[in-house]
Design brief:
globular; four-stranded parallel sheet; alpha/beta; Rossmann fold
C-alpha cells in the first residue's frame, strides 16, 4: 500500500518576508475538506505565513477562484483543496482532468499553486489522505505552494531582458501607437 512507503520530503521553505497565501477549498465532502484545510493552515503557519480562506461549490471552480484572486488581490501563493470520489459516471474523469489541467495552466502562467485536490476511488482513501495526522495532503499542498513562492522570490528580481514582455500601462501612456517599434 502506498501509504506505507517512505517518501523524501523537502525541508520547509524559509522566508525573509512573510508569505500571504489563499486557501481555496471545495467543501463538497465537508469533513474531508476540513481536514485538508487544517493541514494546510498548520503548514503555512509553521513557515511564518498568513492565510485567507474561501470556499467554492466544487473542484471545477477552484482554478477559476484562484484566477480571480490573482487578478484582483495580492496573494503570494494559493492552495487548492477538495476531493473527488469516483462515482458511477464519467463525470469523475471530467472533474479530475479539467480541474488539474486548469491549475497546471495557471501555474505555467507563474502562479504559485499547491494542488491538494484528492482524486480517489472511495471515501476511506480520501479520509486517510486528508488526515493531518496521516498522509496530510492538505499540508503537502501548502508546502508545495510555499516552495514555489520561495522559487518565485529567488528568481523574481532578476530580469535578463529576453523573451516577450507585454506592453505596460506606462508604455501605453507614453503615447505609443499600434505598430510602433521600440527597437
Amino acid at each position: 500500500m502506498a501509504g506505507h512507503e517512505a517518501h523524501y520530503i523537502l525541508p520547509r521553505a524559509e522566508f525573509d518576508k512573510p508569505v500571504k497565501t489563499l486557501i481555496v477549498v471545495a467543501p463538497y465532502y465537508k469533513d474531508i475538506a476540513d481536514n485538508l484545510v487544517a493541514g494546510a493552515k498548520a503548514e503555512i503557519e509553521a513557515a511564518g505565513g498568513t492565510w485567507d480562506l474561501v470556499e467554492v461549490p466544487g473542484a471545477l471552480e477552484l482554478p477559476t477562484a484562484i484566477g480571480i484572486a490573482e487578478r484582483m488581490s495580492n496573494f503570494d501563493g494559493y492552495v487548492a483543496l477538495g476531493c473527488v470520489i469516483r462515482g458511477e459516471t464519467t463525470h469523475y474523469d471530467t472533474v479530475c482532468n479539467d480541474s488539474s489541467r486548469a491549475i497546471s495552466l495557471l501555474g505555467l502562467q507563474g502562479l504559485c499553486i499547491g494542488n491538494g485536490i484528492l482524486t480517489v476511488e472511495n471515501r476511506p482513501q480520501a479520509e486517510v489522505r486528508a488526515d493531518p495526522a496521516g498522509q496530510n495532503k492538505g499540508g503537502g499542498a501548502a508546502a508545495a505552494a510555499l516552495h514555489l513562492v520561495a522559487l518565485a522570490r529567488k528568481w523574481g528580481t532578476a530580469s535578463k531582458g529576453v523573451g516577450f514582455k507585454p506592453a505596460t500601462d506606462e508604455y501605453r501612456l507614453a503615447g505609443s501607437t499600434k505598430g510602433t517599434s521600440t527597437a
